[in-house]
Design brief:
Blueprint: E1 23-25, E2 37-39, E3 46-48, E4 56-60, E5 69-70, E6 76-77, E7 81-85, E8 91-101, E9 107-115, E10 121-128, E11 140-145, E12 152-154, E13 160-168, E14 171-177, E15 184-190, E16 197-205, E17 211-222, H1 237-243, E18 246-252, E19 259-264, E20 271-272, E21 292-293, E22 299-304, E23 312-317, E24 324-328, E25 330-334, E26 340-345, E27 348-353, E28 359-361, E29 376-378, E30 384-388, E31 393-397, E32 402-407, E33 410-414, E34 421-426, E35 429-434, E36 439-444, E37 454-460, E38 466-472, E39 484-491, E40 494-501, E41 509-516
Antiparallel strand pairs: 1-17, 2-7, 3-4, 4-17, 5-6, 7-16, 8-13, 8-17, 9-10, 9-16, 10-11, 11-12, 13-14, 14-15, 18-19, 18-41, 19-20, 21-22, 22-23, 23-24, 25-26, 26-27, 27-28, 29-30, 30-31, 31-32, 33-34, 34-35, 35-36, 37-38, 38-39, 39-40
Length: 518
């Protein structure tokens, strides 16, 4: 087959990508096609077709602050890019990426990129960060919207990989393939607008050794290409966004400490909400944060405090920011109207009034001993509470002053209206009980999301139409296992259809809470 070229410091293309024709490149020419643009905002990085014939070579030399691109508190735009005008509509872009030179102290991210504008750049490819507590031994593939390095990570060696970006509407999916094996799904991102450019980027940071990356076998195909079966499947969030509008909050140790994160149900808006492990913070809570969103979607309750001490109830804005302590005691749930918070202190149920900050005892009837680390919730009518005690899951009725049903397992809750009790009977077995009819059944058994089908941390949405949960690849430990966040539809308190995956990170993502918009 005749070798055709793209361009940049030396590409030749079949036809301009923007015209809707396919592009294929093997870099066997000495100059780049003029339709490609080499963009180096700061002197130093180079692009060459002659240092390794048949490959495009991008190099970022050592520099104290590196050549980075980001849009956080201090935006920076210094990373070199080789880019081409993006075709209109859908497309599929693929290339082979090899890391040729980097040091153990190098912090970098290289690979395919999608440019909406000079501030919003999506990068998909091999990355290494030496200042992270969870840094892998070899570079791994990251999908990173500018300024959000933890958006999605694919474990495993990424020093020599084939990469793909597939655009369908606003959705962009990242795929990875190593020398042997099939395609692996690396994550999905939803664009805000239509991209202006596609191409390659090489970002570096800190003063680590310079980085050299080689690129070959580039293919850009406008239009809808046939979808492929991947080793790690992910349902398209575009379909989910048409069914439910809201966001999910969960806790993760991906930064090295437990923090709260959120993402919208359409896959946008991922961000870290808290920075509890910031220098100077003397608290060291070792238990679950267990976030719960207020009925209006504006605030998030969570449990926090000093290591070994009784838990405290804290609150943070759903947009993120500086959290504050509300009271001593562990909150169960918000009142249905959001004006109060129901919590356990000692052996009794209490209520915290949001407007005044005053506390009052909500019931004179002593509760079952919850032990330390309260998990449970109170019904909207304050007639019953479902909670985990050291003995079992217990459904406690206030007017009778006793537990009328116990369940095995853990992580018990009530639906927002108090109609149903649900809990984890065991991994791959979420159960529900109807107190009115005294009937029990399974909400979710073993989901189809192999290998992520070892399930825990269920939460039913306030409208009882969705179940959000965590699932790992047959790993139980709730502090170290690779739990990911999934969402599945409910009908009559039974899971229906295929689950949607919302988190993509090798650390532990747990205790999700779905807030559904009005």
């Amino acid at each position: 087959m005749k070798r055709l070229l793209l361009a940049g410091a030396a590409f030749c293309c079949l036809l301009p990508a923007a015209s809707g024709q396919a592009v294929q490149e093997e870099f066997n020419q000495k100059t780049l096609h003029p339709r490609w643009t080499w963009r180096a905002p700061v002197a130093g990085p180079t692009c060459s077709l002659t240092e390794r014939p048949g490959w495009l070579r991008m190099t970022a030399p050592q520099r104290p602050q590196g050549f980075d691109h980001g849009s956080r508190s201090a935006p920076v735009d210094e990373a070199p890019q080789l880019r081409l005008a993006a075709p209109a509509g859908d497309w599929d872009m693929e290339a082979r990426i090899q890391l040729q030179q980097f040091g153990p102290d190098s912090t970098f991210h290289a690979g395919l990129m999608v440019v909406e504008n000079d501030a919003r750049v999506l990068t998909w490819g091999p990355a290494q960060s030496t200042n992270r507590p969870d840094a892998p031994k070899t570079p791994e593939a990251w999908m990173e919207p500018a300024g959000t390095p933890d958006y999605a990570r694919t474990p495993g060696d990424a020093t020599d990989v084939s990469l793909r970006l597939v655009k369908r509407g606003r959705m962009v999916q990242g795929l990875l393939r190593r020398k042997a094996g099939g395609w692996i799904d690396g994550g999905t991102y939803f664009l805000i607008g239509e991209p202006k450019f596609l191409g390659f980027i090489l970002k570096t940071a800190s003063g680590g050794a310079g980085v050299t990356v080689d690129i070959d076998q580039v293919r850009l195909t406008p239009g809808k290409t046939p979808l492929i079966t991947v080793e790690s499947s992910r349902s398209e969030l575009e379909a989910l966004a048409q069914q439910v509008k809201g966001f999910v909050v969960w806790e993760s140790n991906r930064s090295g400490a437990w923090e709260l994160y959120r993402i919208n149900t359409d896959g946008t808006g991922f961000r870290q909400l808290t920075h509890l492990s910031a220098p100077g913070n003397l608290l060291a809570w070792e238990g679950a944060l267990w976030p719960r969103v207020s009925p209006d979607g504006k605030r998030i309750l969570f449990i926090y405090g000093r290591k070994g001490a009784p838990g405290q109830t804290w609150v943070v804005s759903a947009a993120g920011g500086y959290p504050r302590k509300l009271f001593d005691g562990e909150a169960l749930n918000w009142s249905p109207d959001g004006t109060g918070i129901l919590f356990v202190r000692g052996s009794h149920l209490w209520r915290y009034d949001w407007a005044t900050g005053k506390e009052s005892q909500a019931s004179d009837v002593p509760l079952p001993d919850p032990g330390r680390g309260v998990i449970g919730s109170v019904g909207a009518d304050l007639k019953a509470v479902q909670m985990r005690t050291p003995q079992a899951n217990e459904y406690f009725v206030f007017d009778q002053g006793k537990t009328i049903k116990t369940m095995a397992g853990c992580e018990s809750r009530l639906t927002a209206d108090g109609r149903y009790a649900y809990w984890v009977q065991s991994a791959k077995d979420f159960r529900v009980w109807d107190p009115v009819g005294d009937k029990e059944w399974q909400i979710l058994g073993e989901p189809s999301t192999q290998p992520f089908n070892y399930t825990y941390f269920p939460t039913v949405s306030s409208d009882q139409r969705w179940l959000v949960y965590g699932a790992s690849p047959n790993q139980h430990d709730h502090d170290t296992s690779d739990y990911e966040i999934f969402l599945v539809a409910l009908e009559k308190m039974k899971a229906v259809g295929e689950p949607f995956r919302l988190s993509w990170h090798p650390k532990t993502d747990r205790w999700p809470f779905l807030w559904v918009g009005k």
